[in-house]
Amino acid sequence: MAVVTKQILDKVYKENFDKDRFLSVDPCGVVYKLMEHTDNQLDIELGALFVAMITWGSRKVICPTALRMLRDEMRWRPAHFIMSRQYLSSYTDAKNGCVYRTLNVDAFKDVCENIYHAIQGYGTLEALFDKKSSEQVIQAICEWLRPAKVGSLNKSACKRVCMYLRWMTRDKSPDIGLWKSRSKKDLYAIMDVHVIRQTKGLISNSRPTWKACVELTTLFKEWDAEDPLKYDVALMTLADMDND
């Protein structure tokens, strides 16, 4: 794989990114399906959070699993699912007690319980996180999702949580831009082993750690201070092109 550059990624983002194609294979596309059934902000926030929570592994498996969760277990109403505690009787037919890969039903219910208690008194997650820094938001969500083993700030790259914040905050395709009170300038890069391989030569860290995430974020901000995470979209588009 050739070393990527700003010029390459700018070209990929401008000429090769195709929203419809991207959403047809990416877990974010499942969130768009949810929005065909509800325009309630808390529904979308929570639904997207659960999709992000299970976004590791093959997208061909993630997407149908996420769809089953939102459609069959939550009936397209994630907010009601949480606030009425329907999760306590969910996934009764889960094979081997498994929701997805290493996430079992008990851990899933623990996540739901954490979220249930955290959002009491708030109409939306955007309101809950009002005036909090990106780091504080990441730390809080990582704590909610601890039973799902998404990592923790300063100990991992928190990939799935950073991706969720991109979906919610960034107001350009393929992202949803639901959180108008937050800025896409303050997002963190989505870092994993694939990104490490793609950005070899651009950053010094060779493992997908929080330090690597911060280093890549800093570089993206140097390239585009207003919309640094467009380069994450470009990297994903480039990866899909390489896999064609």
Could you name the key traits of this structure?
single chain, 244 residues, mainly alpha, two-stranded antiparallel sheet, 13 helices, 2% strand
Word description of this protein:
There is one protein chain. With 244 residues, the chain is mostly helical. The protein contains 13 helices and two strands, in the order ααααααββααααααα. The protein has a two-stranded antiparallel sheet. A hairpin with a 2-residue loop joins β1 and β2. The chain starts with 5 loop residues before the first helix and ends with a helix.
Kindly summarize this structure in a few lines.
Helix content is 54%, strand content 2%. With 244 residues, the chain is mostly helical.
Gap between N and C termini, in Å? 14 Å
Structural class: mainly alpha
Note the beta-strand portion: under 5%
* H/E series: HHHHHHEEHHHHHHH
Mean pLDDT: 96
Secondary structure elements and pairings:
Elements: H1 6-15, H2 19-25, H3 28-34, H4 41-53, H5 59-73, H6 78-83, E1 98-100, E2 103-104, H7 105-118, H8 125-128, H9 134-144, H10 159-169, H11 193-198, H12 210-223, H13 230-243
Helix pairs in contact: 1-13, 2-3, 3-4, 3-5, 4-10
